[in-house]
Amino acid sequence: MADRILLTGGAGYIGSHIYLDLVAAGFDPVIYDNFSNADVAVLDALKQITQRRVDVVRADVRNGTALRAVLSRGGFAGVIHLAALKSVPESVSSPRAYFDNNLGGLITLMQAMDDAGVNRLVFSSSATVYGTPETVPIPETAGRDYTNPYGFTKLASEQMLEMVAAAEPRWSIGALRYFNPAGAHSSGLIGETPSEKTTNLFPAIARVALGQLPRLTVFGDDYDTPDGSAERDFIHIEDLAAGHVLSLRRLIEDGHSHCVNLGTGRGHTVLEVLHAFAKASGQEIPHVLAPRRPGDVARSVADPAMAETVLGFRARRSLEEMCKSTWRMLEQTHPGARDAA
């Protein structure tokens, strides 16, 4: 029997891609999600891609009773924890919701895991823990800070996990500091679905390309970057998903905790991404410049060397592939995309 893996937040953009990689790697993932930021339609897509039933539990990560119930099935080799609120602007306006969900959820999950004797955890962290970085590309040894409540919750979560691992050797934890996931699955059936409440760059550009928005708002044109717009390290979602399976395997094989960046080591500005997406989609992407957003930093680019050394991880897909795969997904999931093109 394949090892079970509990995948919290597994129906979301990142989680659904990790689910596919877990299945391909021979694991038996169980999705645990409250669907507050996920579409139930993704379950049909996962079933279509894998040709197997999707095991899913609809519950909140703060629900200890539900967590203990699913973990009591037994056979779990570990947990990949993605269930968190993630909007920087929303965290600035509603910090308590972020403390409750992101910190409270992690504490509840770890208690349920410990009760079940499951002590391997791959944790979804973020490059936001570097605050305003002093050096770019950013190594894992860089100082940590935060510039918004969302970043605070990721930093505090990392610190809690470090203290638990130091005090209780039975725990082995892989903290993965994401940079900026983008793109879609090669099947075109799943990806980051554009929505009104999203603040991520790629789905915002997609909404413009689909005609759902008249123009893209570019926040900040006076950063110290080649064109004045903010610069980020965008990593293809399929590369990011592969990093989780490598992290999980490392925990299973040697039990040693690790903390690594998942990025490409190359930065792209907002305007560069805009032009790349326009080329891939054949669409004009009108845009308007606006003041910087609170909590944003000028440049955030990974030093990915440690991930390659520790996990054997290397991002392989380009910005062009991120744009093309996103548009391919939109053509399949939004019939109007073909008409727009």
Q: How does this structure look, described?
A:
With 341 residues, this protein is an alpha/beta fold. 42% of the residues lie in helices and 17% in strands. Helix 1 (13-24) runs parallel beside helix 2 (41-50) and helix 3 packs parallel to helix 5 (95-116). The longest helix has 22 residues, at 95-116. The radius of gyration is 19 Å and the shape is globular. The termini are far apart.
Brief overview:
The chain is built from twelve helices and 14 strands. The chain is α/β, with parallel strands linked by helices. The protein has a seven-stranded parallel beta sheet with strand order 3-2-1-4-5-6-11, sandwiched between helices. A three-stranded mixed beta sheet has the order 12-9-14. The protein has a two-stranded parallel sheet with strand order 7-10.
Number of DSSP E strands: 14
Residue share in β-strands: 15-25%
What is the average per-residue confidence, as pLDDT, rounded to a whole number? 95
Strand order of the largest sheet: 3-2-1-4-5-6-11
End-to-end separation in angstroms reads 47 Å
| Low-pLDDT ranges | none
Specify the number of helices. Answer: 12
Shape: globular
